[in-house]
Amino acid sequence: MRLVCVFLLAALLPSTLSHNNRQDPFAWLYGPRSQGYYLGSLQADNTGGDCPPECDCPPTFPVAMYCDGRGLKVMPTIPSRMKYLYLQNNAITAVPDSSLVNATNLVWLMMHYNQLTSDKIVSHNSIEKVMFIHILDFKMISGMDNLTILYLHDNAVTDMGTSLKGLKSLMLLDVSGNKLKKVPQALPERLHQLYLEFNSIDSLPDDFLGRVTQLQYIRMAHNELTDKGIPPNTFNVTGLVELDLSYNKLERIPPVSTTLQHLYLQANQIKEFTLGSFCSIVDVTNFSRLQTLRLDGNEISSQDVPTDSALCLRLASTIEV
């Protein structure tokens, strides 16, 4: 079964890097050609009669088509042999259904920094509602069962509906920096990483993590979450490695699993250090695996930390209060 990763990527601006606090692991895909990322020699003209004249299809890499930074306003014709398509940094305004009909072997699709509007879905444009029209429309979803990574960050998405339901292989979803007021429905069961920071989410559904048992990383910083909006024991699930709830409106530390390793709660309104949120029982074999705990920027100080927290949090290398 071939692995299909169609990326709807936004080129990361400095502001994006600062609030996400992570580097783009796929920068090499669209990095400067002078750094050696540009596979094959483009000194040779387009190879094969099916290569559009406005693009380059290097003979040393015949399954790639480079159309980036050409001032294109419309989608070029895509030969069926292409697996890697680079269309970033253009002025393309639409992705018609016909443009991807022949692209049955496509593995990478790079279209960040174009001028696609609300119903022409691609990252770093102006998307008002995601229904997976065109590139990810419901009629094509059956052919994208192997999609593993989806970046839709820094847009204006307000509602995703149940558009993720058919993405059975999705492992990373990034919809940070949008206008979501609720968590996307029908999260794929194989999801490992979920990035929702910089939205307007104020509550979580009762079954938030019920189906996504493989989820390891949740980032929900800079939302509107309150204690009332988080159902009891929502995050007290095994398997979770990192949880970021910083810059919300929490007044209490939510209960978490003893297997959690990194917890970020800075810049909330927390008024009490509740050791029971980490350990219900403390002895030789029962303790938290937490390594990082950030509580700075709340309404507590180091004097509020119980003396017996050293037993519960014995593995913590960083505790900031």
Secondary-structure blueprint of this entry?
Elements: H1 14-20, E1 64-66, E2 84-86, E3 108-110, E4 149-151, E5 172-174, E6 193-195, E7 217-219, E8 242-244, E9 262-264, E10 292-294, H2 309-312, E11 318-320
Parallel strand pairs: 1-2, 2-3, 4-5, 5-6, 6-7, 7-8, 8-9, 9-10, 10-11
GO cellular component, one term: extracellular space
Signal peptide: 1-18
Protein name: Fibromodulin
Task: Briefly say what this structure is.
The chain has 321 residues and is largely without helices or strands. The chain contains two helices and eleven strands, in the order αββββββββββαβ. Strands 4-5-6-7-8-9-10-11 form an eight-stranded parallel sheet, with no helix packed on it. A three-stranded parallel sheet has the order 1-2-3, with no helix packed on it.
Category by helix and strand content: little secondary structure
The biggest beta sheet is recorded as: 8 strands, parallel
Number of helices: 2
Number of DSSP E strands: 11
What is the H/E order? HEEEEEEEEEEHE
Strand content: 5-15%
> What is the radius of gyration computed over CA atoms, rounded to a whole number of angstroms?
23 Å
Order of strands across the biggest sheet?
4-5-6-7-8-9-10-11
Q: Percent of residues in helical segments? A: under 10%
Write a structural description.
The protein is low in regular secondary structure and about 325 residues long. About 5% of the residues lie in helices and about 10% in strands. It contains two helices and eleven strands, in the order H-E-E-E-E-E-E-E-E-E-E-H-E. The strands form two sheets. An eight-stranded parallel β-sheet has the order 4-5-6-7-8-9-10-11, with no helix packed on it. Strands 1-2-3 form a three-stranded parallel β-sheet, with no helix packed on it. Strand 10, helix 2 and strand 11 form a beta-alpha-beta unit. The longest helix is centred in the N-terminal third of the chain and has 7 residues. The termini are far apart.
